[in-house]
Each structure stands twice: as structure tokens, then as C-alpha cells.
Specification:
Blueprint lengths: L9 E2 L6 E2 L5 H58 L12 E2 L8 H4 L9 E2 L22 E6 L25 E8 L6 E8 L3
Parallel strand pairs: 3-5
Antiparallel strand pairs: 1-2, 4-5, 5-6, 6-7
Length: 197
Amino acid sequence: MTCHNGEPMEMHPYKRLVLYPQQGSVLVVSLLILLVMTLLGVTAMTTSRLEEKMAINTRQYNLAFQASESALRDGEADLTTNAPQNFTTTCGGGLCLPASNGNPAWVSTSWTSGANARRYGQATGAPALAEIPTTPTNFQPLYIIEKLPLQPTQGNGIAQLGNYGSTIPIQYYRVTSYGSGADGTSAVMLQSVFRPY
């Protein structure tokens, strides 16, 4: 018995069915579809994992920023309430005088060890930040206060030509803070120039 294209047909011995020779195209197509589905699944998993890492890094950066901002406000509160006086050129206890070489103290401060910096709440008694672990202690934010050179008092308006008001110079301070995320991988440094009174 032959089929329409001239190939021989087989009869199934038990059911009297006619079997045509296999071409194999269904197998190839199904394997290609399976390969495409596998690639789509792997791509979706990779994308999902990348998005998860991005979300974690964004959270760590936000925690570091908030910790640094808290330390900045703590340093300003330290200046306002405690009026520290023990400023040195070596930044003992986080209180710094201008260096003789003109470099700002925050450049040479070892922020990772916190040796010459004040920890958040150290001088003001503020409680430790809840989102930042207290162990290791270098994850809690730090700050230093630099005493800037005295500045002349400015006038109150343009009509004061030659008259600059009070002759008492104004003392400004630069507060520099450093905060890291909960895992210590992200870091943010902020600064403000502050006049406590």
C-alpha cells in the first residue's frame, strides 16, 4: 500500500490503522519553543534579581543619607546647646581648628575608623538611630566641627555704604557629617556652615 506522495504505508497489526512515516518536524518545533521559553524564564529571573539589587542599594543610600543628615543636625545641636571650646588642630574629640597648611579638616579625617570624630549622640545624648546597627559601632554616623576664621559683620542693607554695622566679627563653624547604610556599604557625607547664635 502506498500513500499520496509515493511512500509506503504501514498497517498497525492490531487496530488496522494506517501509519505514515514520521517527518520529525513536530519534535524540532517543540524543542525550539522550549528553548525560547527557557531563555525568557532565565531573562526574567536575571531582571528580577537586578531590580532587587537596585532596590537594596537605593535603600542603603537613603539610610546613609538620613544617618548623615541626623549627624549634621546633631553637630549643630552640639554647637547650640554645649558651646564646645576645646578645638585643636589635631581634631581631638571631633573639634577642629583650621590647619596651618590650609586643608580643611574633613579631608584628612579618618571617617571609617572615627578616631577624630564625634559619634551621633555622643555630646547631645541623642539615642542611637534605630535603622542603623550599633554593632559594629562604625556604622553609627559621625561628625566633626571645624572652627572657621572670624568673619567681619556684614551690613543690613545697600544704604550702609562704608558702615557695616557692628564691629564684632562673627564666628562660623563648618559641620561635616558622615553616615553609612545598615550594611556599611553606602556612605554619604554632608556639610553645613553654621552660626550657633
